[in-house]
Specification:
Elements: H1 3-21, H2 26-29, E1 37-43, H3 50-58, E2 66-72, H4 76-85, E3 90-94, H5 95-103, E4 108-116, E5 126-130, E6 145-149, H6 155-166, E7 174-178, H7 184-189, E8 195-199, H8 202-208, E9 212-215, H9 217-221, E10 226-233, H10 234-239, H11 241-260, H12 262-272, H13 294-306, H14 316-319
Parallel strand pairs: 1-2, 1-3, 6-7, 6-8
Antiparallel strand pairs: 3-10, 4-10, 5-8, 5-9
Helix pairs in contact: 1-4, 3-11, 3-12
């Protein structure tokens, strides 16, 4: 069993115990104030969550009766059990983490898209990069290389292996190490790693420091891959579908607004990140369509099975509301 599968199995047990003692859903945890239903959403402090901040600012959630509180914190390892227990009503998480969680029996359901690859490696939000002095010119040259990713047995190593595979290299001859994204540019610069999978804004930082891009790993996987989505618990979706529908509608409008108003989206970063504004014009952005491409998720799931991260492909109709 992989490390992630083991960890999520433990989380499943803990979340189930918490669920028995915690009321789930905004309708049970708090009374509506001023006619609005309070909901709490867990996100990461990254560029890709700008649409939800923009949507709150534009009043899209309030128009649908929701009073949104955004909590910034860790990734799926912390947000998944908090959503299952009802501590968070919704959260933002990458799709591989949610596929793994579903296989472990965690009752989660996707309610809105979060971000999608651009489909163009030269402009995408994510890339596989190497130091400026590297002899590596493409993914096939990474035999025996040490590659930094943010979480083992997840979307990072799956997509990197795939880039190596499609380039004709050996996807099994890689040594992955876990590093936080902010630490990756330094690790490349000091020779700690041979390559790194980096996302914005750290991709721009790495390129500014001289790193060279050798692959668009998400684009290689599928040109319409939804990288992350917003999700909730099956219990909240069943007990309070009106709130979940309202969140989905507001989130979809937020995504469309962010896509159509890039300058406003960029400026939103000043409200929740510490990104140097001098980098704003150089940042690459994902796309923000409302639609989740199921063919792309099927491709990802099949690769996760191939790599032994999950045992079988998920039922996407059960995963996506």
């Amino acid at each position: 069993m992989t490390a992630n599968k083991t960890a999520l199995g433990v989380l499943a047990a803990g979340a189930a115990l918490t669920l028995a003692a915690t009321a789930c859903g905004s309708g049970d945890t708090a009374e509506a104030e001023g006619g609005l239903t309070p909901v709490t959403v867990g996100v990461l402090p990254i560029t890709a969550v700008a649409p939800i901040y923009l949507g709150v600012e534009q009043g899209f959630f309030e128009e649908r009766g929701l009073d949104v509180t955004i909590e910034t914190g860790g990734g799926g390892a912390t947000t998944v059990p908090r959503v299952v227990s009802g501590e968070l009503d919704f959260a933002f998480g990458n799709v591989a983490s949610l596929i793994i969680a579903r296989e472990q029996g965690l009752p989660l359901t996707v309610v809105a898209n979060g971000m999608t690859t651009t489909g163009d490696a030269d402009t995408d939000y994510s890339a596989l990069v190497v130091p400026a002095d590297s002899d590596v010119t493409g993914p096939a040259d990474l035999a025996g290389a040490t590659v930094a990713i943010d979480n083992l047995n997840n979307i990072g190593d799956t997509s990197v292996r795939n880039s190596v595979r499609v380039a004709g290299g050996d996807p099994t001859d890689l040594d992955f190490i876990e590093l936080a994204f902010p630490d990756m540019p330094g690790a490349l610069d000091n020779g700690q790693v041979d390559a790194a999978w980096v996302v914005e804004p750290f991709l721009t930082v790495a390129l500014e420091q001289g790193a060279t891009e050798i692959a668009g790993n998400f684009v290689d996987l599928h040109p319409d891959l939804s990288i992350a989505t917003y999700f909730t618990s099956e219990e909240l979706a069943a007990e309070d579908p009106e709130t979940v529908d309202a969140f989905t509608e507001a989130m979809n409008e937020s995504l469309a607004y962010a896509e159509a108003n890039r300058e406003e989206t960029v400026q939103t970063l000043t409200t929740y990140t510490e990104i140097d504004p001098a980098l704003f014009d150089q940042l690459r952005w994902p796309r923000f369509p409302a639609e989740i491409d199921r063919d792309a998720l099927s491709t990802l799931a099949e690769l996760m099975v191939t790599d032994g991260i999950i045992d079988s492909a998920p039922d996407l109709d059960a995963l996506i509301r």
